[in-house]
Predict the structure.
Amino acid sequence: MQKEKLRNARKRKGFTQQQVADYIATDVSNYSRKESGDVAIRKEEWEKIARFLEVPVEEIYEEEDGKQINNFENNTNSNNIGTLSNNEIGTVSGNYYCNIPEFLLESQRDYIEILKKENQRLQEELNALKKK
């Protein structure tokens, strides 16, 4: 579900997606997916974006479409990060999951690509030295 209230507020304030992405420490493609509703926006991100746009959270917040799970609970009695609290199939209590923020995954994917290119460059350099 597209975040029209968020998009409209951002445009009204004259900010680009890149500026908001920089503020919430993600890349612009990930922020664009958040604004288009493809990636969930966490509670902390809603709050940061509202601060950046200088608007109340209620002015930009729109519910997720129910496909993403965003609820975290502090569970100090386990090694798990949170509990599964909303599931399209039904309620599942007592099951644990680990939810890694999308911006961290994107960052790691980008870094892996950089390392692959560097490995390829070094391999080509090594092959060139072997031919001499």
Q: What stands out?
A: Confidence is low (pLDDT under 50) at residues 67-96.
